[in-house]
Amino acid sequence: MNDADVSKQIQQMVRFIRQEAEEKANEISVSAEEEFNIEKLQIVEAEKKKIRQEYERKAKQVEIRRKIPNVSFTISAISDLLDQHLDMVESDILVEYSMQLNASRIKVLQAQDDIVNAMKDSASKELLRVFSDKEAYKKLLKGLIVQSLLRLKEPSVLLRCREIDVGLVESVLDEAKREYAEKSQVHAPTVTIDTRVFLPPPPKGLDLHEAFCSGGVVLASQDGKIVCENTLDARLDVVFRQKLPEIRKHLLGNSRA
């Protein structure tokens, strides 16, 4: 399996979960918009209530002053005060509206980040299914080893894999070395499997919070200066970084709809 085949297989996994992610994006976007509208309505109603209370208070003051001689507190003065208060209230509403709008936008952006992370987690879980098909996984391992050797172009390398993959790696290593030698027109390299330090094991169940490895290999030159990380998780990271602008653009488009 060459580089294009590996990338294609991982991209298919990402596409497989895209529909679910799009539905989540729409749901979160609608929820954020509804929440924002409710908060805005509550603010407006609260300010209207303040205005009514203020007007009633001023009206009572006028009634009291009318009963007191030589007090020049007119309806016009009250109207001016109320106009000033309304201007202040309107300004406060605009400020609060702007703050709520920004908060709503932040919520949408955070929701988009959550969806992107959820998509990656889902894709990581899909990778675990690759290991369940032993023959397909052996073929994939061989392809990853050949690909790593072609990148390193070293006569002697150290190979690191998961402890549960040692037997599978040993079963395809000679064939991978021969394929590399044929493609590079060089002698088959010396490949030493590291039996002291292994890559992390697969995740326990669907818990992706602890260190884990979904499969694949890491090859390095004997001096450790050149390293080729060719695990399934690393390949997924590469594909995800390449597709991230497209994913974010798609999610942003949904949020505006």
TrEMBL record:
Cellular component annotations (GO), alphabetically ordered: proton-transporting two-sector ATPase complex, catalytic domain
Superkingdom of origin organism: Eukaryota
SUPFAM superfamilies reported in the protein's UniProt record: V-type ATPase subunit E-like (SSF160527)
Keyword Ion transport: yes
Keywords per UniProt: Coiled coil, Ion transport, Transport
Coiled-coil features, chain-numbered ranges: 38-65
Sample GO molecular function, one term: proton-transporting ATPase activity, rotational mechanism
HAMAP family in alphabetical order: ATP_synth_E_arch
Protein family: Belongs to the V-ATPase E subunit family.
Protein name: V-type ATPase subunit E
Organism: Dillenia turbinata
